[in-house]
């Protein structure tokens, strides 16, 4: 798939897929979307000592970076194990041109950004003390065959239903649910009624939340 880099309204960059007419992130702001959906309405709601995060999908790596940024703001007396699935990894040129480390004041973020992208697929790597990343190159529908610890936070960040409707249907949500702990949280930018109903059928408590800039609503869902 041919991709090009575009700058979103908050100054952060994203990738645009020409064939699908689809951005990896909101054109209103890639960084502010990630922080709103996955940090404010995700990570900051979890109080466990050991946090196992499952992300669908890794994409540009921005969600990993904002998660590390938030982790560094805490007293770091907990552990994060971050598992991220991706079928189409981006290339070295795109990684270089996105340059997400420039979005953060911490001078260490260039090294952290490089370590995130240079870490081997399929291997758990300690990016910083207490934060472990395992990138898994696979189709999302292979999730059922992947051995994971019980997940207590899901970043559901698939491409939109307009271009990949199968990623927003019951079979994949069932696989995700099977990997989650009771009281685990799934957070996503989507607010589709069909997604809410599927999650409710799978015994999630679903709550509509205020969406990131440019989007009225999003979903949080807690596994009961």
From TrEMBL:
Transmembrane segments: none annotated. Pfam families: Methyltransf_30. InterPro entries: MnmC-like_methylTransf (IPR008471), SAM-dependent_MTases_sf (IPR029063), tRNA_MNMC2 (IPR047785). Keywords: Methyltransferase, Transferase. GO terms for molecular function: oxidoreductase activity, acting on the CH-NH group of donors; tRNA (5-methylaminomethyl-2-thiouridylate)(34)-methyltransferase activity. One of its GO terms (biological process) is methylation. Residues 137-223 form the MnmC-like methyltransferase domain. PANTHER family: MNMC-LIKE METHYLTRANSFERASE DOMAIN-CONTAINING PROTEIN (PTHR39963:SF1), SLL0983 PROTEIN (PTHR39963). This is tRNA U34 5-methylaminomethyl-2-thiouridine-forming methyltransferase MnmC. It comes from Chryseobacterium soldanellicola.
């Amino acid at each position: 798939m041919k991709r090009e880099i575009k700058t979103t309204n908050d100054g952060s960059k994203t990738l645009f897929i020409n064939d699908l007419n689809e951005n990896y992130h909101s054109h209103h702001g890639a960084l502010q979307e990630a922080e709103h959906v996955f940090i404010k309405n995700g990570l900051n709601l979890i109080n466990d000592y050991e946090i196992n995060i499952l992300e669908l999908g890794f994409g540009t790596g921005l969600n990993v970076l904002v998660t590390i940024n938030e982790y560094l703001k805490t007293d770091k007396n907990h552990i994060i194990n971050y598992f991220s699935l991706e079928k189409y990894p981006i290339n070295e040129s795109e990684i270089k041109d996105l340059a997400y480390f420039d979005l953060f004041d911490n001078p260490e973020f260039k090294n952290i950004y490089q370590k995130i992208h240079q870490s081997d697929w399929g291997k758990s790597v300690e990016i910083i003390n207490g934060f472990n990343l395992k990138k898994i190159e696979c189709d999302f529908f292979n999730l059922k065959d992947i051995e994971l610890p019980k997940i207590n936070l899901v970043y559901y960040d698939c491409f939109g239903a307009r271009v990949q409707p199968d990623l927003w249907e019951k079979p994949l949500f069932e696989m995700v649910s099977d990997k989650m702990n009771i009281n685990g949280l799934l957070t996503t930018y989507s607010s589709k009624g069909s997604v809410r109903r599927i999650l409710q059928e799978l015994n999630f408590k679903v709550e509509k939340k205020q969406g990131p800039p440019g989007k009225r609503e999003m979903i949080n869902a807690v596994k009961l």
